[in-house]
Amino acid sequence: MTNGDVAANDARTTAHPLLVVEQVVAGYSAADEVLKGIDLRVETGEIVAILGPNGAGKSTLVKTLAGLIAPSRGSILLDGRPIAGRAPREISRAGVAYVPQEQNIFPTMSVRENLEMGGFLDPRNSARRIEQAFTRFPMLARRRRVQARALSGGERQVLAMAMALMVDPTLLLLDEPSAGLSPIAAQRLFDDIVAIHRGGVSIAMVEQNAHEALTIADRAYILVDGRNHRDGAAAALAADPDIRRVFLGG
Ligand SMILES: Nc1ncnc2c1ncn2[C@@H]1O[C@H](COP(=O)(O)OP(=O)(O)O)[C@@H](O)[C@H]1O
Ligand SMILES: [Mg+2]
Questions:
Q1: Which helix (H) or strand (E) holds 32?
Q2: Closest Cα to atom 1, ligand 1: which residue?
Q3: Coil, helix or strand for 72?
Q4: Among 35, 128, 155, 182, which one has the highest count of C-beta atoms within 10 angstroms of its own C-beta?
Q5: In angstroms, rounded to a whole number, what is the distance separating the alpha carbons of residues 111 and 144?
Q6: For position 4, what pLDDT does the model report?
């Protein structure tokens, strides 16, 4: 039995996968079919990596999942309920948090104020969640009064994830969290992502750093030109000679 068969069986026997994306077509006014019919699934408890060359549509896909782009066709089900085309704050309330690749913090606000911004949809629980963030990421507690622009690249990414976690999501969407980081800073960030996952959050993450992403992911999807190219268990993809040659540098 292949991994695909295992996944298909799970889909039949569990109530609902956390996220099911089917044949999603989406894009921008200038280019309305960037995604040309994407399928993707995230089971509760998984880390799913979304890989592929520049321009493949990875960011467009996570923006669509977060509600920033309304798909023109296809369906997106969260816990069995349709969310395609809903407003970002509704999708956030439904349990999906999104960390954009860029401009994901407020540079002139303090670390603590950034966390407050992350919790603005649910202000009553904000103070408690900020304390949780400080416990989980002691670096943020130490630097709570510092302007976010004073943080290192890796620390900013931690802050951006902590802001996203302020809504207590079931699914965290990350767009290239390790982009621009040194190998050591990237490794630390991947460790933080694993810790967030262990805390009970399912994760779908876009990564250029395919080798590292496949190391921590359960499954992965490779997109090429707005279409599904390959998918499967992360370990199997990491060991696949074609994938190694094209995406992992041999
Ligand atoms: N705001 C936009 N308006 C028009 N086209 C866009 C916009 N953003 C991205 N695109 C195009 O959509 C395609 C996929 O982009 P993107 O999703 O950012 O790819 P990836 O994240 O995989 O590098 C590219 O051809 C890109 O030029
Ligand atoms: Mg991108």
A1: strand 31-42
A2: 28
A3: coil
A4: 35
A5: 5
A6: 47
Task: Please give the distance, rounded to the nearest whole angstrom, from the Cα atom of residue 79 to the centre of ligand 1.
Answer: 28
122 within 8 A of 165, measured Cβ to Cβ: no
What is residue 109's DSSP assignment?
S
For 47, counting Cβ atoms within 10 Å of its Cβ (0-12 exposed, 13-18 middle, 19+ buried), the class is buried
How far apart CA 207 and CA 205 sit, in angstroms, is: 6
What are the per-10-residue average pLDDT scores of the chain (250 residues)? 48 76 96 96 98 96 98 97 95 96 95 94 90 96 98 97 96 97 96 96 96 96 97 96 78
User: Pairing between strand 227-233 and 81-82?
Assistant: unpaired
For ligand 1, say whether the CB of 34 is within 6 Å of any of its atoms: yes
Q: Which atom of ligand 1 is nearest to the CA of 175?
A: 21
178 CA distance to ligand 2 middle (Å): 12
Q: What is the pLDDT of residue 123?
A: 85
* Side-chain-facing half-sphere of 246: CA atoms under 13 Å: 12
pLDDT at 229: 95
Other beta carbons less than 10 A from residue 184's beta carbon: 9
21 CB-near residues (< 8 Å, 6+ apart)? 38, 39, 40, 41, 61, 65, 74, 75, 76
Do residues 133 and 115 touch, judged by C-beta distance below 8 A?
Answer: yes
| The pLDDT of residue 153 | 96
